[in-house]
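Recall that a protein's primary structure is simply its ordered list of amino acids. Everything else, from secondary elements to tertiary packing, is in principle encoded there. The following example makes that idea concrete.
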Amino acid sequence: MEVRQLPRGRHRLTREEVTASQRGRMLEAMAGAVAKKGYANMAVADVVSGAGVSRETFYQHFADKEDCFLAAFDRVVDAVRQTMVDAVAGRPADPLSRYDRALDAYLDLLCTEGATARVFLVDVYAAGPRALARRREVVDEFVDVIAEIFAARTPSDRFACEALVAATSAIVTVRVAAGEFDQLPHLRTPLVELARRLKLTPAARGTGRTGA
């Protein structure tokens, strides 16, 4: 998710491209500052220096530190969601295999992107009520993704998907908070087994459905 700084001197980029680059660098700098200092201890100055922009530029894009964090959080959410969707797109298979691929992509992304993982799973809880409300919405969005994979249609099936998402989030968050990123790939097998035990697959439910 690296965003490069613009070259010095004259360039042929449009104003829109310059603005997009500045915004991307500031979101990247926010994630880096949060990973290094934690949300409570980082400041707008960390974003400004990390992105190589002026304070004036920062406030042209964001109202304050919280606003920038929420934008960085949404950027991470989009990346995580797209990574999982891409992992299963166009690959018909049984639901458990599709879940396995989505989970593998999710864990791999968080393992390799430490700053991304902290923004997504840890420091969002320290960023205030707006961030917590957005986090709650995101949980529902990811439950939708898992429910689609398992073709969950009944309230009990959806609740099982919610339980799986909650368990995954809690287990992964503990390791991310401790900086144990190398442990994340090892969670894949037990989490797939958890999904199997929750009997989310059509065969386990005895419905004869073939999945999403």
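Residues 27 and 164 are 30 Å apart (CA to CA). The chain has ten helices and no strands.
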